[in-house]
Backbone:
């Protein structure tokens, strides 16, 4: 990741880190949720996991090793902005 890319991503995302098998990931506030956004690049992202609160999303992002879904009580995985996969284990 170049410094230029990091500076661009910091305009829209916080807590940016690289996760194996998921690429660059960060936290982004949405209208009603907070997302762990993964597969970030200069123009878009691969998908996101939506959480009710920023605290939940940040904790999950820092615990996630990239295998499977992130931990925590995520609501929905929005894949490539055109497919929603709801959390089957949501409490």
Residues:
């Amino acid at each position: 990741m170049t410094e230029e890319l990091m500076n661009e991503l910091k305009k829209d995302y916080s807590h940016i880190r690289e996760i194996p098998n998921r690429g660059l990931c960060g936290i982004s506030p949405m209208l009603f949720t907070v997302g762990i956004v993964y597969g970030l690049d200069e123009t878009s992202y691969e998908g996101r996991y939506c959480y009710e609160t920023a605290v939940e999303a940040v904790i999950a992002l820092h615990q996630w090793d990239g295998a499977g879904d992130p931990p925590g009580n995520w609501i929905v995985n929005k894949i490539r902005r055109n497919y929603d996969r709801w959390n089957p284990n949501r409490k």
Observations:
- The CA atoms of residues 37 and 48 lie 4 Å apart.
